[in-house]
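Researcher: Next sequence.
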Amino acid sequence: MSVVVNTGDIKTVVTVTDDGHNVNVSTSAGVQTHVNINGAIPIGFPVPGPQGDPGNEIEIVAQENIAVLSVVTTDGKKASSDILSHNNKIAGIAVAAIANAASGMVISFGEITNQGWNWQKGDRIYLNGFVLSNAGPAAGFSVQVASALEATKLLVNIQPSILL
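Model: Next structure:
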C-alpha cells in the first residue's frame, strides 16, 4: 500500500510492504529511508478488519409458514404493509420456503432472481399487502424493499418505511 503526499514542490511516497513490518519513504528530492515498524500501522493507513459474513443474508426463526420470496419481519412473520406492527421490522425476502418454527435465510441486501418475475428495469419494488409490487400501498405503511435490475432480477435494499 502506498500513500502519496504533496507538500509544495516535494512529493513524498510512503509504502508499507506486504508483510506489514517495513516502511519505505522516498521523496521527489531524492531522499530515501527505510523503517522497520514491527507490525505497527502508521497513522493514516487503514487497518483491515477480519474477513466475515458480508451480511447479505440473515437467519430468522419462522413464527408461521413462510413461502419462498415472501417479505419477512425481524420476528419471523410474513410481512404486510397493512399490519402497522410490521412497520420498521422488515428483515428481508425469504430465499426459500421456511416452515413454522424452523430456521431459514432471508436476503436483506443483494441480488435475488426469480424466472417467474416480469419487472421493468428500474422499477421500485414495494411491499404492498403481503406481496411485492411496483405500486406502493394506499394505506398502512410504505416500504421500498428492492429495485428491478432486470425483468427477473431484483436488488434487495430495504429502505426506511413511511406511515401512510
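Model: The chain has two domains: 2-36, 57-163. Residues 1-5, 39-54 have pLDDT under 50 and may be disordered.
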